[in-house]
Amino acid sequence: MPNGFDASNPPFDRLTQPEIGELRAALDIAYLAPGEAVLRPGQAAEHLHVVIKGAVEARDGETLNAVLGPKDSFDSRALVHGAAGEAFVAAEETLCYLIPRALVLDLIARNPGFAAFFYSEVSAKLDAFARSHRAEGMESVLRARVGEASRGPALLLPGDASIQAAARQMQEAHINAAFVRDGARTGVVTGMNLAKAVLLRGLPPETPVREACHFDVIAVEAGDFIFDALLLMTRHDKRRIAVRSGGAFTGFLEDIHILGLVAGNSQLIPGRIDRARGVEELAGPAQDIQRQVERLHRQGVKVEQIAEITSDLNRRLFVRLFELLAPPAIRAQGCLVIMGSEGRGEQTVRTDQDNGLLLEGPVPEAELAGFRTTFSAALAAFGFPPCPGGVMVSNPLWSQPVEGLVRQLRLWIMERTPEAAMNLAIFFDAVAVTGRAGLLAEAKQAMATALRDDRALIARFASLVEAFETPALGMLSGLMERVGLAPDAIDIKKAGIFPVVQGIRAMALDRGVMVPSTAGRIEALAAAGSLSEAFGRELLSALRVFMEYRLRAQLEAVQRGRLEHEAMVAPGALSAADRDILRDAFRIVREFRELLRNRYALAGFG
């Protein structure tokens, strides 16, 4: 009986101790010679193979789909569903554990967590396995720092200020608690304290605020854990405690702020955005939006829900920034639009600015020039990097009267170049955020009319999916690890997200589907018969797999300060189960690319 089997390797980490004992008792070991075929397409499997050492190639005809290494398993489809989807061939001398089919089926029937690994649909597999990386729930909230939830800046009132003046300043600052400095001591006053002082104690409004505050301040450090703060609040029966940093009071932590951590603060941020009276007051909520992405991910929220929440909050931010910066003529004549992943509602960690401005007619040139500069600069200051391709309000090409943009769209249609096709693709994702939404509808209708029945241009549009290769997962990692180099990394955006998004864009344009989100487009295309419902579900699941892995890469890149790696995923650093999910997702992308090649004769685009 082999004793070296690693039961901590997913999916075996889902098994109970008695189940692990059964598995180890049933294990055998097989030797595979170089070039030996283990499974052929359509063949059923009598064992689940788990690689101990060596490498096994997964092939579809002449196409190398993956190279499986130590701890990788194969082939769950052949084992459970009766037919291998690929050929599995030993690339070198290889040792594998053999787990009998009957035992695997028995464990699947008994253990839902283990069974998830063998689901045929990527969507079900992702839902089951993503929880192991992210489902920390309330535990992650308790391990958060006080500074993540507390609110500032602190308002400091002099002790001799009147109760009426204190109430006015707190109202203007949109806060319900302030600090009071009275000589050498510091106290706290709340809106309720002020109300009770006047209504219940009968103090005149001119009374110094020191008479209404209390000086037994309970405080916590910004770097302390939320768990410590909760203990302090419970011990002293407080719903609000003061927060210190560097020896100074910086704000307050309230019970509702801790509740906000559970929901990623998404219910608190809109109020801060709406209350902003200047651009500088939007910087805080802009950063909160980014911080909440990590919190939501840590708490096990699905990536598509994170994207939906984040997109909604970003749009609120853009609207308020537009209201604060746009001169009256632009507010009256303009429509602010967002494009790219922001327009599709698929943005998580913010990347480039993708926005524009449509105008119903001319506005004063000086006002327009000033708005272009200040709007894009403010977003850059909030952490939205400038778009390398210039798709942003500061570029006159993307901020002009609607008549001019329609002319530009028609020029791109006539140009027939990949660059022109990409600009059309970017605009196709545009969504109106605020202002005259009819202007965007007018421009999109003009584009759709010009493209109608233009099969050559739709094919050019679809051919952009060939810009990047869909990788054979693991093809280089085994070799590179053996020669002492790091495993290869995959640009998940180029290899996975872009082919799905762009291919669905092309099909949506072809069928006149004007829904902005990829999920909405897939649903509409399936309803129209352009995609089967089953393949549409798998495509959407594959997209969400890529979004999930990209989000992990983005959060790690932010943490390490290496933003250039925000889309890079190293297969060698993934668990066997994660690699299996990623393999399935890339398989679906390859199928989709083949569908597009056949439908639009993409072989003609070299």
UniProtKB/TrEMBL annotation:
Transmembrane segments: none annotated. GO terms for molecular function: [protein-PII] uridylyltransferase activity. PROSITE patterns: CNMP_BINDING_3. SMART domains: cNMP. It holds the Pfam family DUF294. SUPFAM superfamilies: cAMP-binding domain-like, CBS-domain pair. It comes from the Bacteria. Keywords: CBS domain. Residues 11-125 form the Cyclic nucleotide-binding domain. This is Cyclic nucleotide-binding domain-containing protein.
